[in-house]
Every structure is written in structure tokens, then in C-alpha cells.
Amino acid sequence: MQIGRFTIDTPVELAPMAGVTNRAFRTLCRENGGGLFVAEMVTSRALVEGNPETLRIVTFDEDESPRSAQVYGVDPATVGAAVRILAERDLADHVDLNFGCPVPKVTRKGGGAVLPWKRDLFTAIVRAAVDAAKPFDVPVTIKMRKGIDDDHLTYLEAGLIAQDAGVASVALHARTAADYYSGTADWSSIARLKETVKHVPVLGNGDIWSAEDAVRMVAETGCDGVVVGRGCQGRPWLFADLQAAFEGRPERVTPGLRHVAETVYRHGELMAEYFEDEDKGMRDLRKHMAWYFKGYAVGGDTRRALAMVSTLDELRGHLAALDLEQGYPGADAEGPRGRAGSPKKPHLPYGWLDSRDLSEEFEESLREAELSVSGG
Ligand SMILES: Cc1cc2nc3c(=O)[nH]c(=O)nc-3n(C[C@H](O)[C@H](O)[C@H](O)COP(=O)(O)O)c2cc1C
């Protein structure tokens, strides 16, 4: 998979996930297999303002290459300035732009997955990012959804606009904002995007839970690479399976509980290091516990204790008390995990659908769209 000047041997991207894909988690994923590993999203404004937590997000391991950051923004000038900061200060080697956020408080202001509806604004944001990155040879890519809902699809047009603007690849989460995380991703839309966008790689995203799913997505859609999100939550070894599958090897990682426990502890250590604060690190680790132990026989009390862990010592104690000889539970540890939910009628600014171009009345509301963003 080619992303600008970077050749990625395994055609796999770790999906940017706010609150999940920090440096600690990426280290675990990268140790398992190849691919492109995208950091958590940062907002363009926070970056321009030099917010300390935002600057922590765009830190990478020394051996991380390319260093891949994701930017969310709604204003071309601010996005351009943010990308310039990342490139000029040598903070990142690749910048992905997020046009996939379906959260009502963002779409209500015209941001996230409903932004590409305003063609002129979308074009201006992508161009500003590409122009800012070009002197530094930093590839810019986009990640989007299919559109607002089935009656207001934007992805084919947005893909072409982005290609014309000079992006290095386009990724599609094959759902609309209205779909949220419900149902199954519509992989046929990835095939349509691949038929439409011919000059840059097209990456497919949505509902890859196993290496077999990834290979099937490529076979069914012709996409150049896959983007894996929830499927690797609590399963960083999925990247070993993905690499094996794309190299045509049959072996798969089927960890017993001892391997899971060792990984959780290492994750804890990496978290403490990343936050430079054991307490913060443990707090952030808590959300991963249910994902790690999905399908394993671990009692309710132990699960609760693990989900409230506050020191590495405590974590070691809880993990040591598990039945570490327990083997891989098979199907119970596989399949869908993480965020799900039902379709939601997208909240939009009043009159948003009336025109494909941006008018002044939306500018104030868009500024607020950037303040409330929280993921994709
Ligand atoms: C917890 C969480 C946080 C996410 N944060 C982001 C984000 O910051 N930027 C983004 O583009 N997508 C974000 N997403 C969407 C994922 O990148 C991905 O598109 C989506 O989960 C579908 O892929 P999957 O079926 O493999 O999970 C997030 C998803 C989850 C579950």
C-alpha cells in the first residue's frame, strides 16, 4: 500500500480512535504486525493553540514510521495552520483528515460526517491541508463516511474532490452518519468508491473483526487496503493475523489467558509511561479491560476489580489471581466488539440540506463544531 512516499508492506491501517489509539496502544499493535498506525485525532484549533494534552497526542515512539497523525477541523485556514505545525516542526510524517464523526453535537453544527455536503468548504479544507503539507513532502489523506443518510450520499463526489486536491489516499467507513455504528457496513459502497477514484489508493473500513474479514473485503471490493478499528480493541495481536493473512500464511494468534494477562500488564506499563503518571495511565487502561477479557471465563468480581484498577501493583495482583492456564475460548473472543448502537436521524443545522454550498449563516455554528468533537 502506497501512501505518498511511504510504502506500507501490509495493506492495513489501524483506524484512528479517540481515547484508544494513543502511543501505548499503537506500540502493542506495531509489535504484532505491519501496517500504518494512526494516532488519536487532534482538533486543528487545539493544535494551533498549543494545548499541552493535544501535543502529547502527537508524540510517537522513536521507531514509529511513518508517524501518522489525524486532524479534525472545520475551517480551512485553521486546518492549514495545524498541518503546517505538524509538518514544519517535524511532529508527523503523514496527516489524515477526519470527516467521519457522527456525534450529534458535532453534526448539529455542520461538522464531521455531514461536512462534505458543503462541497466548497470540504474542497477548501482538503486543499488547505495539502498545500500546507506539500513543501514538507508530508502526504495528506482523508477518512470519511458515505454521507449524511441514504438520501444524501457524498462519498463518491468527496473522493473525487480529494483526489483532485492532491490527497495520497481516501478511506471510507462504509456507513452514513445516520447509520452511526449500527447494522453492518455496506462494503458495496467501498467497491463503488474504488471504481470512481482511480488515481490514489482507496481504503475500506467497517466491520473487520478477523484477518479473514480483511482479505474478504479486499476480494469483494478491490480496495487497496483495509482500516481496522473496533476489531483490535483488546486484541492487538489481530495485526499479526492480518499480516499473516495478507502474506498468505494460515497461522493465527489464539492467546490463552496468560498471554492476555501479560499483554494487559504491558499495556498498563506503557500507559503509565505515556501519561507520565501511573494514576492517569491506569484510569485510561480501565476501558480496555472488558475488551481484553471478552470470551474468557473471568468472574464478575474480578472483572469489576480490573475495571477499577488504580496502580500497576494492584493490576499485577488481580492478573496473577486469574486462571492463567485457561486456553483460547474461540468464537466467544471473536466477532463484533466495542461501540454499537442503533441508527440515529442526524441532527443538522437548520437549512443545511438546502444548498450544497456554504453560506455565512453557518459559519458561527461551524466554529462551535470544532469545540465539541470527540471522535469518529
Ligand atoms: C472509540 C472510537 C473512537 C473513534 N475515534 C475516531 C477518530 O478520532 N477519528 C476517526 O476518523 N474515526 C474514529 N472512529 C471511527 C473508526 O476510526 C472507524 O471508522 C469505525 O470504528 C469503523 O471501523 P470498525 O468497524 O473497524 O470499528 C472511532 C471509533 C471508535 C469505536
TrEMBL record:
Residue span of region Disordered: 327-352
Family: Belongs to the dus family.
Domain DUS-like FMN-binding: 14-315
Enzymatic reactions: a 5,6-dihydrouridine in tRNA + NAD(+) = a uridine in tRNA + NADH + H(+); a 5,6-dihydrouridine in tRNA + NADP(+) = a uridine in tRNA + NADPH + H(+)
Enzyme class label: oxidoreductase
Needed cofactors: FMN
Keywords: Flavoprotein, FMN, NADP, Oxidoreductase, RNA-binding, tRNA processing, tRNA-binding
SUPFAM superfamilies cross-referenced by the UniProt entry: FMN-linked oxidoreductases (SSF51395)
Record EC number: 1.3.1.-
Database matches in InterPro entries: Aldolase_TIM, DUS-like_FMN-bd, DUS_fam, DusB-like, tRNA-dHydroUridine_Synthase_C, tRNA_hU_synthase_CS
Function, as annotated: Catalyzes the synthesis of 5,6-dihydrouridine (D), a modified base found in the D-loop of most tRNAs, via the reduction of the C5-C6 double bond in target uridines.
The keyword Transit peptide is annotated on this UniProt entry: no
Protein name in the entry: tRNA-dihydrouridine synthase
NCBIfam families reported in the protein's UniProt record: nifR3_yhdG
Gene3D superfamilies, sorted: Aldolase class I (3.20.20.70), Putative flavin oxidoreducatase, domain 2 (1.10.1200.80)
